[in-house]
Specification:
Number of helices: 7
Mean pLDDT: 87
CATH class: Alpha Beta
Order of helices and strands: EHEHEHEHEEHEHH
Structural class: alpha/beta
CATH topology: Spore Coat Polysaccharide Biosynthesis Protein SpsA, Chain A
Strand order of the largest sheet: 3-2-1-4-6-5-7
Radius of gyration: 21 Å
Strand content: 5-15%
Helix content: 40-55%
Number of strands: 7
Amino acid sequence: MNAVLIPVRSVSGAKNRLGNELDDAARERLTLAMLADMICAARAARRPDLVCVVSGDRRLLEFARAAGAETLLESSLPVFGEQGDPTSSVLPRGGLNRAVCLAARALAARRVQRLLTIPGDVPLVTAVEIDALFDADRPAVVLVPSGSGSGTNGLLTAPPDVITPVFEGASLAAHAAACDAAGVGYEIVTLPGFVLDIDTISDLCALATSGHEKESSRVASELLAGRTSQAATVARSAFSSAAPRGTNG
């Protein structure tokens, strides 16, 4: 059985690297739009039997269920290895990697054989690309790099828990090192829809001008337009305040 896993930390305080550019409501709207697009792409693909979202945020999981995904609440996932099993030592302490690790183990227990994990801020992925990753005869691990070439925007693992995930930072090299340490083969595959992840205002501009008919692209365009309009209003207000006033002679 094949599955796609989309991990998202929370809708509250999401995309905090954009905090100086967008308010909380705007970032929450963007997060949900990206998630909806990714669920839609994964469900449209032929090869996955299951599309899952893992998060600690119940409100976000409710949204994901309405969009057609199965959901996994992180706090409800069993933590294997607590009784002295050596696998407990490789369980990440927290954050995105812990959620992915727990979800991968839970899905492996449900007889999922291949798992494609895509972080929740990669909105331009397509069903065709997802199928391509599952269709080919692949090694145990496939790494799909981000546009920078240092991050991992797609991680195909067979079985799901064959390595411990190390998303964030220079994760491409970290995942390759994890494969080497575990003695498993890996392949790096670049796919256009996996290139863009949304962390900065320039990423948001790229999403808005991508030419894709996606909800997240439309939302990005609206948020940028609103930001430009707000900046123009502030500039006009500042100019009016600074302008010299007439005097009575």
